[in-house]
Write a structure and sequence with these properties.
By secondary structure, the protein is an alpha+beta fold. It has helices at residues 7-20, 63-78; strands at 37-41, 57-62. A two-stranded antiparallel sheet has the order 1-2.
Length: 79
């Protein structure tokens, strides 16, 4: 089952994942403040259906690590 999340629910989920990971970014392995974390998710277009690879939350990551991973993913898709 897939659900669209409201902004207030996103913060709750982000904090829950952050606590599960002992307040660390799972990519960097370093302590990161909650306000520096973002929910990493698989993007989907409006015309696409939700699926395990489209529109789902994967993890809470440091926003810088998430940005770099997004750039790498996009570069790989283009090659």
């Amino acid at each position: 089952m897939y659900i669209e999340m409201k902004q207030k629910d996103i913060r709750v989920l982000k904090e829950k994942l952050w606590l599960i990971n002992d307040k660390k970014c799972p990519v960097l392995g370093k302590d990161i403040a909650l306000d520096k974390m973002v929910l990493d998710h698989a993007h989907k277009r409006n015309t696409e259906s939700y699926s395990p690879t489209k529109g789902v939350v994967r993890e809470a990551l440091d926003k810088r690590a998430n940005s770099i991973l997004g750039k790498v993913e996009n570069a790989l898709k283009r090659t």
